[in-house]
Structure formats: C-alpha cells, structure tokens
Amino acid sequence: MKRRSLGNAMLNGKCPRCREGNIFPVAMMSYLKLTDVHQKCAHCEAVLTPEPDFFYGAMYISYAFSVALVINILIVLNYVFDDPEISVYVITVVVANFLLLPLMLRYSKVLYLYWVGKLKYDPEKASIKN
After folding, report:
1. Confidence (pLDDT) at 128
2. Angstrom distance (rounded) from CA 47 to CA 119
3. pTM tops 0.70, yes or no
4. Can you say whether the dihedral through the CA atoms of 1, 30, 34, 88 is positive or negative?
5. Per-residue confidence at 13, pLDDT binned at 50, 70, 90?
6. Which of 30, 80, 82, 92 is most buried as measured by Cβ atoms within 10 A of its Cβ?
7. 3 phi and psi, to 5 degrees?
8. Backbone phi and psi for residue 46, each to the nearest 5 degrees, phi listed first
9. How many CA atoms lie within 13 A of 89 on its CB side?
C-alpha cells in the first residue's frame, strides 16, 4: 500500500489515523451536508467525533479563515481598483465568503481534528483492507 503524506491527507480530508478513509460524506467543495462528519472512519474504524460538540473549537479556525479572506480581498481591491466604493468591498467579501464557505468550513474541521484530536498516524491501520 502506498503511504499517503500528511499534507496530501489533510488536503483531501482523510482520516488522521489511516490517511485513507474520508472524514466527510461528500466532496470537500460540495454545498451539500456542510456540517456532516463521519462518526467513524470507514477504512480503520477510528472515531472521528470523540464527543458530541468536538468541532465547536473549529469555529475559531473558520473565523481566522474568514478574517484572512476579508483582509486579502480588501488589500487586492484597494491596490487593483484604486480604492473603489464601499459597496464593491461588501459585495466582493459576501460573494467570496459564499463561494469558499464549504472549503473554509471543512478545512477548519480537518485542521482541528489533526491538531486537537488524539488520533495519530498508524501505518499498520493504513494497510487494512475492507
């Protein structure tokens, strides 16, 4: 079995323990089931939600993503369009937040699970065949 790197596993939303099973029931960019997370990994049976409100802490990461997005949009609009009207800023920020909502929400949960979750990579669990 090919070993999946940490970065590749995080980018694709894979289980922290085996790096093979999906954390989410849908694709990372899907607008369907935005808050759903698998209870257990389908590949290695690792518990991905250790307690009912585990992912509330991911809101802080999601907030940081939103703030970074707003700041970057403000900087780009200010330099590219030479200080446009405030409505341009507001509309651009709202549209960008809507378009990137699934990614920001899901990657905040992935980062939180990898950083705070107690699951560590186990190469033997990765080689399990279902």
Report:
1. 63
2. 9
3. yes
4. positive
5. very high
6. 92
7. -80, 130
8. -70, 140
9. 14
Tell me the pLDDT band of 2, cut-offs 50, 70 and 90: low
98-121 average pLDDT score: 91
Provide the pLDDT confidence category of residue 118 given band limits of 50, 70 and 90: confident
Q: Give whole-number Cα distances, 24 to 3, 33, 84, 114, 125, in Å.
A: 21, 9, 39, 14, 19
Measured CA distances, 47 to 22, 88, 93, 97 (Å):
12, 44, 36, 30
- Residue 128, CA distances (Å) to 67, 112, 122 in order: 40, 25, 11
> Do 28 and 103 touch, CB atoms closer than 8 A?
yes
State how far the Cα of 111 lies from the Cα of 123, in Å rounded to an integer. Answer: 20
The dihedral region occupied by 19, where left means phi > 0, alpha psi between -120 and 50, and beta the remainder, is left
Picking from 19, 23, 17, the residue whose alpha carbon sits closest to that of residue 9 is: 19
